[in-house]
Design brief:
Layout: H1 5-8, H2 18-21, E1 31-44, E2 47-52, E3 58-63, E4 66-67, H3 75-84, H4 88-105, E5 111-117, E6 128-133, H5 140-146, E7 151-152, H6 161-173
Parallel strand pairs: 3-6
Antiparallel strand pairs: 1-2, 1-5, 2-3, 4-7, 5-6
């Protein structure tokens, strides 16, 4: 799972301008935009540790609208095993695929913008919820779902959930990412 600098410098697919395409994130009603954040650590496919570049404030971010397989054996891993019928050891491998994808597109040191919906700011564990906008203008949340490394999830509501569910369906149909190996995770 080593970071490969050549894979992080990928071109934007199909010549579309991600800034134009992802303008929707900057127009979410009742949201707060925070700039100058830096990724310190990628915890798994749906969680990051970040710090503010100037104030050095640190926090843990949980990505809105999605769920990625776990990368450690845990209570949630056991729950996912029961729900999906997939052995925990296999779910762990899928979690590592998701983690590796995030490390390729958003490695530690990446400068990001965080967008938070003010009416839904934290998860059950009091982690900050956010959309993560990459330097390219692309949204990490959307990339994970579109490329099949996370699934759309209503566990933590976000206003773009219907769009994420559509992207998730398309990823499943295209057998993208983890869907190349299984239909449900």
């Amino acid at each position: 799972m080593k970071y490969n600098a050549t894979t992080a410098n990928r071109e934007v697919s199909e010549g579309r301008n991600p800034t134009e395409e992802n303008r929707k994130y900057f127009t979410i009603p009742h949201s707060h935009i925070q700039t100058f954040w830096i990724v310190e650590e990628v915890l798994d496919g749906d969680s990051l540790k970040v710090k503010q570049e100037f104030t050095q404030e640190r926090c843990e971010i949980r990505l809105y609208g999605l769920d990625a397989p776990e990368v450690h054996f845990s209570r949630k891993m056991r729950e996912d095993e029961v729900k999906s019928g997939i052995p925990a050891s296999l779910l762990l491998q899928y979690g590592l695929l998701s983690l590796d994808y995030v490390l390729q597109v958003c490695p530690p040191g990446t400068r990001i913008t965080l967008i938070t919906e003010l009416e839904n700011r934290t998860d059950f564990w009091l982690r900050d919820l956010a959309y993560v906008i990459l330097p390219s203008g692309e949204c990490l949340n959307e990339l994970l779902i579109k490329n099949g490394f996370a699934k759309a999830s209503h566990s933590y509501y976000c206003s773009l959930l219907p769009e994420y569910q559509t992207l998730n369906f398309q990823a499943k149909q295209n057998k993208a990412g983890i869907y190349l190996f299984i239909d449900v995770f």
